[in-house]
Specification:
about 150 residues; 4 strands; four-stranded mixed sheet
Length: about 150
């Protein structure tokens, strides 16, 4: 679930690749929103809850943490157990993600380190070759996602 932005499109491409490479049967439904705010996340939760409980997804990857936190709030208020009924992952790992009523699993992108490295490259202190692999996103697992078993299934 996310807006239209080049970063979101890259995240969607990664999700599509993960589904394609999955050993377990998996499908992907894309939900586009105009803006990625907590209020919009809560609205999307209400829309999802119009489906029968059996029609809810197993999990949602939100384009950012604010969207995920709004979605989390809407789901919990409606009685959906996160992560037992539905796992949820945000993106950006904002500070509040760790303080939510159910701490949000999120993907951390090292923005500050990336910016500092860009400055070092511009100053000629560092080469782009030196940065390969240093800025890969990191999954920060918290309470909104179920642990993955040894067989790769949640």
């Amino acid at each position: 679930m996310g807006g239209t932005h080049p970063h979101i499109d890259l995240r969607l491409a990664g999700a599509r690749r993960a589904v394609a490479e999955s050993m377990a049967p998996a499908s992907l439904e894309v939900v586009r929103v105009q803006v990625q705010t907590a209020k919009v996340g809560e609205t999307v939760a209400r829309t999802l809850l119009e489906r029968p409980r059996s029609g809810l997804p197993d999990g949602i990857l939100a384009g950012n943490d604010l969207l995920a936190l709004g979605l989390l709030h809407g789901l919990i208020v409606a009685g959906v157990r996160v992560p037992e009924d539905l796992s949820l992952v945000g993106y950006d790992d904002i500070e509040f993600a760790d303080f939510a009523i159910v701490p949000l699993t999120s993907i951390r992108h090292p923005s500050a380190a990336l910016g500092a490295s860009a400055v070092r490259i511009l100053l000629g202190i560092e080469d782009e070759e030196d940065t390969r692999g240093r800025f890969d996103p990191q999954l920060v697992v918290r309470a909104t996602s179920l642990p993955v078993g040894d067989d790769g299934h949640a």
